[in-house]
Amino acid sequence: MLRPGRLHAIVAFALLTVGGSAAQGASGANLEVLQLRPNFYMIAGAGGNIGFQVGVDGVVVVDSGTTASADAVVAAIKKVTTQPIRYVINTSADADHVGGNAKVAKAGQTLFTGNGGVGLATNFLGGGASILSAEQVLTRMSGPSGKPSPFPLEAWPTETFGEPRKYMYLNGEGIEIFHEPAAHTDGDAMVFFRRSDVVVAGDVFDTRTFPVIDVAKGGSIDGEIAALQKLVDTAIPSVPIVSREEGTLIVPGHGRICDQLDVVDYRDMVTIIRDRVRDLMKQGLTLEQIQAASPARGYTRRYGSDTGSWTTNNFVEAIYRSMNKKPQ
Ligand SMILES: [Zn+2]
Hints:
- The structure is a single chain.
- The chain is globular, with a radius of gyration of 20 Å.
- It contains 12 helices and 13 strands.
- α8 (221-234) runs antiparallel to α9 (260-282) and α9 crosses α12 (312-325).
- The strands form 2 sheets. Strands 1-2-3-4-5-6-7-8 form an 8-stranded mixed β-sheet.
- It has 328 residues and is α/β, with parallel strands linked by helices.
- Mean pLDDT is 89; it is low at 1-14 and 17-27.
- Residues 48, 94, 96-97, 203, 253-254 line the site of zinc ion.
């Protein structure tokens, strides 16, 4: 998390609380819009954090929040700019990150005039914005064939990629999308806006809790640590003049804006707990015995929980199961 002084400075000049009629959708969502850079904004309060870049080419949005917040998200973007939304990039297939896809894309306009891509035509959605993700996100959102899809067709990605690094150049800056193949899930993407110097990290980084590792959806502890390391390697802190408190900004999947040192701390925490679980596994302890040994001690007050959808025991179990999956 940013040092208090810095966060205060950002909030002081850039917090546009979007209250009132325009941004309140059916959900009554009360969103916060933070201007992080001259042409880069973050929306909090719509599920997962949303980032968006604005420029002459239009708007590039990373994640779309929950379905219930979608109208409010569109209103918040339109309050900042009259430029059309061109891209929605998804960081995973989680409902709090892709739920608004259909509405946000429909509110936009494709960059392409004809059918330009493989798979679904780019004039799909009547010429709305493209929805871009790793291939695995489309697989998750469409579901196995012969069964009802978890998400409606209009919310699915219209463009997918399989390479580790996908890139675009829009609004005068390079945009790099890093696919992390086995971290929070198998379809995680982290989106780096190179000139704005902002990374939208998705749920590989969650400042409120231990990272959510969904082993059933291809997540793993080692892939999670690799993704955090990639974030550390991508970001640059304010050195050598540390008093300036500048540097790369990292938008986590949930929680406050961070800098490189915050990710270093988080990576170290996750690595220490992984190592403790691994040592206990080597001693032949069962999962229950390992959980009882509190391998997350020292971090539970800040990141842990005994209740809710992601408990400390869930995290320890995810480490155990993903390490057990590996060939011995
Ligand atoms: Zn999330």
